[in-house]
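> forwarded from #structure-qc
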């Protein structure tokens, strides 16, 4: 989700922000879905270097659901 569509990010560990093509975007773990690879557009950017932030957000999701 574009960060500009949000008032604020109140929990940055759960909703980390990344910059893709100069646009700040926010991960919304509650909205993660699977999509077929052939429905995706062209490759834009790898978030491999930000993997720890993605794992932290998923950890928050799982531990809060089962904690």
């Amino acid at each position: 989700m574009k960060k500009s569509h949000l008032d604020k990010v109140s929990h940055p560990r759960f909703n980390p922000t990344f910059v893709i093509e100069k646009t700040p975007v926010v991960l919304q773990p509650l909205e993660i879905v699977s999509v077929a690879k052939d429905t995706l557009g062209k490759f834009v950017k790898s978030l491999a270097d930000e993997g720890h932030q993605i794992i932290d957000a998923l950890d928050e999701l799982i531990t809060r659901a089962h904690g």
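QC bot note: The mean pLDDT is 91. The beta strands are 17-20, 23-26.
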